[in-house]
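Example record for the data management plan.
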Amino acid sequence: MGSVYKPVSITQRITSSPLYITVYILLVLLGNVGNAIVIGVVGESILRDPGVVRSSDMILVNMALSNLMVSLVRNTVVMVSDLVIEIFLNRDLCHFMMGLWVWLRSANVWSTFFLSAFHFQTLRRVAPPVVKLHGPRGPPSSLILGFIFIWSLNFIYAIPAFIFSKNGGQNSTETLMLVSSTTRPLMGCIWDFPTAYSGLAFATSSMVMHEGIPIFLMNFTNLGSLLTLFAHGRARNSDKTQDAPVISRIPAERRAAKVILALNILFIASWGTNIISVNYFNYNRGSSTEFLLIVARFANMSFIALSPIVLAVGHRRLRAFIKSLLFWTEKLHG
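Corresponding structural encoding:
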C-alpha cells in the first residue's frame, strides 16, 4: 500500500520558518527586557529621592510592571510551549493560570488607560505632578487608591476564570474566545462554564469592560489632552503675563502628550488586530483561521514589546540610560 501525501499548510510553513521563530523570540525578549529596564530606571529615580515623587513616573512603573507580568506569565510560557516543548497543565494549574491570565491582562488594560487619564487631569489643573520635599511626603493618596482599585477590582472580576476552567487535553478546541485573556486554548486550558449563556455573558462583559470602555476612554482623554494643550498654547501666545513655570511646561507637556498618544495608538492597533482575528475564528472558521490566530498572537505581544521603545523616545532618564548602554556596548566591542 502506498503512502498518502499530506500537503503542508501555509500556517505550518510559517510557524516553522526561521523568520517566524526569530520575530517571535524577539518580541517576547523585548517585552521582558524592555519593561524590566523601564521599571529599573524609572523606579530607581523614585527610590533615590523619596521626598520628590513624580506621580507620572509611578504610573509608568505600574504600567511597565503589568506589561512585564503579562510577558513573563503568559507570553514567555506560551513561547516555550510553542517552540521548545509542548506543555499541558493539569486541572488545578489550569484553574490558577486561567485566572492569573485574565487578572493580569485586565489590569494591564486599565493601567495603560490610567496613564492617559492622569495626563489629562494634570493638564486641566496645570500644576506640576510633583510632591515636593516640604509638602506631604510620598505619593498622593488618590494615586495609591487608583493602583489599589485597578488591581483589586480586576482580581475580583477574574474570580470566575479561577473557577470555570479546566484542562481539555491535546485535542480540545476552544469555541468561546475571550479577547481580554486568550486567543486560543493555552497549554490545554479551556473554559468550562455551566451553560452556554453564562459563558457568553462573561465573554460579553469582558469585551465591554476590558476592551470597549477603556478604548473609548483612551480616545476621549487623549483628545481632551490635545485640545487642552492647544488652548494653553493659544493663551501663552496671546497673554504674556502668564506665570513662567506654566509657560515653560507647555513644550514638555506637548511631548508627553505625543508619547501617550503614540502608546494608545499602538494599544488600539494591537487590540483591533487581535479582535478582528479572534472574531473571524469565532464566526467564520474559514481557510484563513489558523493564519489569523497567528496574527492575533503577535498582536497580543506587540504592545507589550514595543511600548518600552515608545517610552524611551519621550522619557529623559530612559533616553540617557539607553545612550549610555549603547556607548558602553560600542566601547566594549571597539
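Summary line stored alongside the record: The CA atoms of residues 50 and 138 lie 7 Å apart.
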